[in-house]
Design a protein that fits this description.
alpha+beta, Porin, disordered N terminus
Length: 323
């Protein structure tokens, strides 16, 4: 009796079982190459853009969208544009530059119109999760892995839109399943306001004010207790012949799955204008049909020595996410 010949075509699995083994091996190698992260870098960029975007009230706040507008009841409006262009690859966010314009539309006679420039540096996100949560996201990532090309085939890199769609799928899956315990991030921003026009005060005297800001924020995103922002900042304003520095701190807290939160800030001015200001706020976020932040409001009770006033701020991120 002759020996039975085995006709196996290289690169073509002969049984469903072998196909599963090969798929599992490819998935394991891919996940190991990703340093055991829950999602890809770009997916984390999208997730953080939406998580951080639940609070946007001043030009100094972080937004990862291409464009944003902030305004308040004092008549100040600022429009920012993120200069960073997506590389089309799976890259994490590390730093970017934004430019913008700021004006006061409530008191146009004061000529408050100027340019903004801001540089932001971000840390590496830190993620804490359980083995079960890791298994959940591994399953999601296996679904969106690009197919392995046939043997001897010419490999064509996936287009930017394909990478973005895969990252968007992962980011929404992470948000919808809450398959994490805690995600932390911190960032530092330095900004400068330069007036285009000579401004006027209430006595019609003219001056040319410059305003610089340096701030550092720590952000916690918990799948149980919600979002927490803690910010410390230093400001310096040159007004006529006076330099007015100030130091301040702010917190913002939004419970998990809540559209309402609590905020507060304290600022101490030094020099000739050495008053202390503070506020207690109620931040509110409006979301779109994908549960992404569409507009944020913050209603504030402001304690401006010696008066107390009420005000409101609004922030609107728009266009696509820049990363």
């Amino acid at each position: 009796m002759g020996t039975r010949q085995s006709h196996i075509v290289p690169g073509r699995p002969q049984t469903p079982r072998l196909l599963l083994i090969v798929a599992f091996a490819i998935t394991a190698i891919h996940l190991q190459a990703q340093d055991s992260a829950l999602v890809s870098h770009r997916a984390m960029n999208i997730f953080l853009a939406n998580a951080i975007g639940y609070h946007l009230s001043t030009p100094n706040d972080l937004t990862l969208y291409k464009n944003s507008v902030t305004l308040n009841s004092d008549g100040n409006i600022a429009i920012y544009h993120n200069l960073r262009q997506s590389s089309g690859q799976d890259d994490p966010i590390r730093n970017f530059t934004s430019i913008g314009i700021q004006a006061n539309i409530r008191y146009p006679e004061t000529n408050q119109l100027g340019g903004l420039v801001k540089q932001t540096w971000l840390s590496k996100p830190r993620t804490r999760y359980t083995p079960g949560q890791k298994k959940t996201m591994d399953s999601v990532r296996a679904i969106v892995l690009p197919p392995t090309p046939p043997q001897n085939a010419i490999y064509t890199a996936p287009k930017d839109q394909s990478i973005y769609d895969d990252a968007l799928f992962q980011a929404h899956a992470l948000a919808n399943t809450s398959a994490y315990q805690l995600i932390t991030l911190n960032w530092t921003s330095a900004s400068l306001y330069v007036p285009f026009l000579t401004q006027k005060d209430s006595t019609k005297q003219t001056f040319y004010p410059l305003h610089a800001n340096l701030s550092h924020t720590r952000f916690w995103e918990s799948s149980h207790w919600g979002r927490l922002y803690l910010t410390v900042a230093g400001d310096a304003q040159i007004n006529k012949d006076f330099l007015t520095p100030s130091l301040g701190a702010r917190f913002v807290y939004l419970p998990h799955t809540s559209h309402f939160g609590l905020s507060g800030a304290l600022q101490q001015n030094f020099g000739p204008y050495h008053v202390t200001t503070a506020y207690i706020g109620l931040p509110i976020v409006l979301i779109d049909k994908k549960a992404d932040p569409a507009c944020t409001f913050e209603f504030q009770v402001r304690f401006n020595d010696p008066t107390t006033t009420v005000g409101v701020t609004a922030g609107i991120p728009f266009s696509k996410i820049a990363f």
